[in-house]
Structures are given as structure tokens and as C-alpha cells.
Design brief:
The protein has 398 residues and is of the alpha/beta class. Helices cover 39% and strands 24% of the residues. A hairpin with a 2-residue loop joins β1 and β2.
């Protein structure tokens, strides 16, 4: 019987590998993923972190250097005795383009393998973005950046964070209701516009990935993440360090849950779901803004002194606290992370929101529970979209 071979993307090029190469691919992925997610490490530290022997690490690092995925730097000699080990770091010339289409803007950025945000632009929109227009704008920005942020860099793909359920099998956007997308093959459109591989995911799922790896949930293994954006509220769950996708990849739609509202006077939308009641647009209206990003909303709320805006903030926080308590009771996470305008709401009085959540949570589930705002701020969705590309294109053998 002939040896089975399969095609895989490695180091920015397509190669055909036999099954016997699987262990080496896995070890290369392990070393690259370690320095990407944990930061630069000496060869000695990589030996300890991976459990591989010194000669294997030296061989793998040599191949990664040759492939242009890592660089070796002279170590800091201060305080060292004997011959120090070179430091291995991700090559910052390897980048991913990350995209987040929303109802009022297209956010697009370039993120390097070492985590550096190379470029970021927000392109305001006066009309809803179609999938075709989104792909066109991405192609235009890549062309414009060719002699700027992308000059001298290797772009390995485009990551797209979409506010709606995305089919895990093929990245099809089943529905992004606020964008009015249905069964949108945005990944294929972007690949046609850029010539690069595209990875598409739900925005909240990608935001959760970013905060789990690099932000407020780092070190936790059980996480609930809620993202509040112009399109509503999305969510994601990580259980035992593994994202909970569900049968089709649609798990985490907290915004579509029916909210628990104790006081009928707090209801604003008859038979509405959570994102109808806890709403960025309602907050903007309360402070007299027609639009703006989360920073503008936060500033406006901080400077507002009228009772109307204060009452709206309090109302939304009461409903949000019940929703978070329900999530804590069902999923028993170690941390609940809030991003977007939900982070703005929480940051007004994080301790107060924490107390309101705990008051409605089963005591056993409240033990060790931590409530946190997203540490990566407005970059969280782009970071998550970039990570999806790095994982798919550069970390073979998983």
C-alpha cells in the first residue's frame, strides 16, 4: 500500500507531507505557537516548556528561522553566568490582515506574528456594508498598504470577525441580521479580492479567543465572554480550555436569550431579547449621540450629569447582571469577560455589577468567579481574527 500523503500549509508555502512527517510538523507547531503566544524564549526555556530535548529544539528552531517564521536574537548578558542561550522570537515580518465589518464602519488592521499592531484603520460607512463591498474595501486597503505597512512583510491571510453565526465547517455567515447578510460566503469573496486565504468567525467567538490567549481571561480554563457592539450582543464559551462551538458552530448567542426582568418598568421592548434591552443605541440616545465608538460613549457617559442617562445606565446594568448570573449558574466559569459597550457599562462600577451578579448566582458557582472587562479594548476582535489565521495557516500538526 502506498504511503498516504496530504497537502498542508507550512511556513507560508504549500507542501505535500507523508503521515510520517506528522510528529515533526506537530513539534514545529508547538515551538512556533509557544513563542507566539507566550513571548520570546531562550532555547533552554523552550526545552523546558515543550519537553523536547535540546538537540531537537536546536534543529526545529533552525528550520523555523530558515522558513522566516522566527528570529534568533542575542541574549541579554546582564546577570548571566556561562554561555547564554539565544532568544527565539516570532518574526515580525509575518503578518495577518484582520477585518471586522459592522453596521456603521469597517475596522481593518495588520497584526504581526509577534503581536504588534502594525496598522489600524476605521472606515466609517453611511450605508450597510454588503459582503461584496466588504471584500472590495479589504482589497483596496491591501493595495494601498502595499508600499506602506505591508512593505517587506509576508501576509499569510485575512481574518474576518462577523457579527452573526458562522458555520464552522466552511465559514459561511448564516445570518448577520443587522448587516442584512444571509448565507454570505464572505471568505470566498475576500480570497478573490486579495488572493490570500481567508478565515471567518463569529466576532464574539474571536474576541473570546483573543482575551483567553492574551487578555483578561489569560490563565483561566473556563470562560464566558459577552461582546457588545453596534449589531447587538454576541457571546462565546470556553470550557476546559476548548472553545464550545456546538453542533454547527453557533454556540454562545447570549444576545438572543429572553432576559430576566424583575421590574416590568425596566422593559423597553415587548417580548424583546437581551440585546433589545441592553443596547448600545439606547445608551447613545440617552447621552444625545447619533453615533460613535466605545471610547466616545464612555466619555459621554462620564461627563453626563442628567438623570435620564444615569437611569438608562442603571436599568441596563440591572438586566445585564441577571443575564450574567444565569450564565454563571449554567456554565460555572472562572471568569466572565465583557467587551465593547458592555465593558463600558461594567466599568462604570465593576464592583457594584459584580455584587449584583453574585446576589443572583448559586453560592457554589459564585466561588472563585471573577468579572472582568476586556483588556484588549477595541483591538480584541482584530486580534482574535488574526489568531484564527495564524492557527490555521502557520501551526500545522494540531
Amino acid at each position: 500500500m502506498p504511503t498516504r500523503r496530504r497537502a498542508s500549509w507550512h511556513s507560508g508555502r504549500m507542501v505535500t507531507a507523508s503521515r510520517g512527517d506528522g510528529m515533526r510538523r506537530a513539534n514545529l507547531a508547538l515551538v512556533l505557537r509557544t513563542v507566539h503566544r507566550e513571548g520570546p524564549r531562550s532555547r533552554a526555556a523552550l526545552t523546558e516548556a515543550t519537553g523536547l530535548n535540546r538537540s531537537t529544539i536546536a534543529d526545529l528552531v533552525g528550520e523555523l528561522v530558515s522558513d522566516g517564521l522566527v528570529v534568533e536574537r542575542a541574549p541579554d548578558p546582564v546577570g548571566r553566568v556561562g554561555r547564554p542561550s539565544p532568544t527565539v522570537a516570532p518574526d515580525p515580518r509575518v503578518v495577518t490582515v484582520a477585518v471586522n465589518p459592522e453596521v456603521d464602519a469597517l475596522d481593518i488592521g495588520v497584526i504581526a506574528l509577534d503581536g504588534t499592531l502594525i496598522a489600524r484603520e476605521r472606515l466609517p460607512q453611511t450605508r450597510l456594508l454588503t459582503p461584496e463591498r466588504t471584500a472590495e474595501l479589504v482589497g483596496e486597503r491591501l493595495a494601498a498598504w502595499a508600499e506602506g505597512p505591508l512593505r517587506g512583510r509576508r501576509t499569510v491571510g485575512v481574518g474576518v470577525a462577523v457579527p452573526g453565526p458562522v458555520r464552522a465547517a466552511d465559514g459561511l455567515v448564516r445570518t448577520a441580521p443587522h448587516l442584512e447578510w444571509t448565507d454570505a460566503a464572505i471568505g470566498a469573496l475576500i480570497e478573490q479580492a486579495t488572493g490570500l486565504p481567508a478565515r471567518v468567525g463569529n466576532d464574539a467567538a474571536l474576541g473570546a479567543l483573543a482575551e483567553y490567549l492574551f487578555g483578561a481571561a489569560r490563565g483561566a480554563h473556563d470562560v464566558v465572554y459577552l461582546n457588545g457592539g453596534a449589531s447587538g450582543i454576541g457571546g462565546a464559551v470556553i470550557v476546559g480550555g476548548i472553545p464550545l462551538g456546538g453542533a454547527g458552530g453557533y454556540a454562545g448567542e447570549f444576545g438572543q436569550n429572553r432576559p430576566g426582568i424583575v421590574d416590568a418598568a425596566d422593559r423597553r421592548a415587548a417580548d424583546g431579547v437581551l440585546e433589545d434591552e441592553v443596547s448600545r443605541s439606547r445608551l447613545l440616545a440617552a447621552v444625545g449621540l447619533e453615533g460613535g465608538d466605545d471610547a466616545a460613549l464612555s466619555d459621554a457617559l462620564a461627563s453626563a450629569s442628567d438623570p435620564v442617562s444615569a437611569a438608562e445606565v442603571d436599568r441596563q446594568r440591572r438586566i445585564l447582571a441577571t443575564a450574567l448570573a444565569n450564565a454563571a449558574n449554567v456554565l460555572n466559569p472562572a471568569v466572565i469577560v465583557l467587551g465593547g459597550f458592555l465593558a463600558v457599562l461594567a466599568a462604570r462600577d465593576l464592583d457594584g455589577l459584580d455584587a449584583a451578579v453574585r446576589a443572583q448566582t448559586v453560592p457554589a458557582c459564585a466561588e472563585g468567579l471573577r468579572l472582568a472587562v476586556a483588556e484588549l479594548g477595541e483591538d480584541r476582535l482584530l486580534v482574535g481574527a488574526a489568531e484564527a489565521v495564524f492557527e490555521a495557516e502557520l501551526f500545522p500538526g494540531r
